[in-house]
Design goal:
Largest sheet: 7 strands, mixed
Mean pLDDT: 95
Number of helices: 9
Number of strands: 7
Radius of gyration: 17 Å
Low-confidence stretches: none
Bound molecules: S-adenosylmethionine
Shape: globular
Strand content: 25-35%
Structural class: alpha/beta
Distance between the termini: 51 Å
Order of helices and strands: HHEHEHEHEHEHHEHE
């Protein structure tokens, strides 16, 4: 019941372009990026019905990868024109020979303490000279949900003492450094909160999920 209500609420927000992903795609366009000419890759396709089906409407073509074969039918339904591959995204990223203009890593938060961190540096090898990178980041995590291994990984990746509270600007320093090491420069960035009214629901939700959009150019 709760899931159906949530889905209905999400669909209403989608209709009025009020979901975080649609606000982001509109903002990217407003900044002059010709998304309609972009080839996109979503490394974590899931069932395709949360953000990937919206991305598909904005780009020239889209490919998506997903490890769970049970998602395939739903991916085909929601992404009828997309190229779909079932398998391990990290392995496919290493093998990929073509390049894209838009890379999204809509990683799940619960199953991988490495978040999206291990897509780097391979991700840079598949980017065209001007590209959008879209990542799920988690600046705030309640200690109850931050496991010890994940805390250590976050400390190391972002170079911070407190892995439960990482200012977005501090995160950006890391992504800028990564880009620089791999021959790219961050031209601009912005973030959007993924959870509806997070500040009011903080105690229950226990983590702040923020989608980070980076526009990068090869130096
Ligand atoms: C947050 S969901 C993606 C939601 C999706 N983008 C959408 O719009 O509906 C994350 C997905 O990543 C998948 N996943 C986790 N590890 C993976 C891996 N190593 N390779 C490919 N997919 C993986 C999970 O099975 C899950 O379906």
């Amino acid at each position: 019941m709760k899931q159906t209500v949530n889905k209905l609420f999400y669909d209403i927000r989608r209709k009025f372009k009020l979901t975080p992903i649609l606000k982001e795609l509109e903002e990217i366009k407003r900044r002059g990026v010709p998304l309609e000419n972009f080839t996109a890759l979503e490394m974590f396709g899931g069932y395709g019905d949360m953000i990937t089906k919206d991305c598909l409407q904005y780009v020239k073509s889209l490919e998506t990868w997903e490890i769970n074969p049970d998602c395939e039918a739903s991916l085909k339904k929601h992404l009828p024109t997309a190229k779909i591959r079932i398998g391990d995204s990290y392995a496919m990223l290493k093998e990929m020979k073509t390049k894209v203009d838009f890379l999204s890593a809509d990683t799940a938060l619960s199953d991988n303490p490495n978040e999206h961190f291990t897509i780097f540096p391979d991700a840079f090898k598949i980017l065209n000279d001007k590209a959008i990178i879209m990542l799920n980041t988690v600046p705030e995590m309640h200690p109850d949900v931050l496991k010890k291994d994940a805390a250590e990984i976050r400390k190391k990746f972002y170079g911070v003492e407190d892995p439960a509270n990482i200012p977005i600007e501090k995160m950006i320093e890391k992504y800028k450094a990564l880009c620089k090491e791999n021959g790219f420069e961050v031209k601009w960035w912005f973030t959007t909160d993924r959870y509806f009214m997070y500040p009011l629901r903080k105690a229950r939700v226990k983590k702040r999920l923020v989608q980070l959009v980076l526009y990068v150019e090869r130096v």
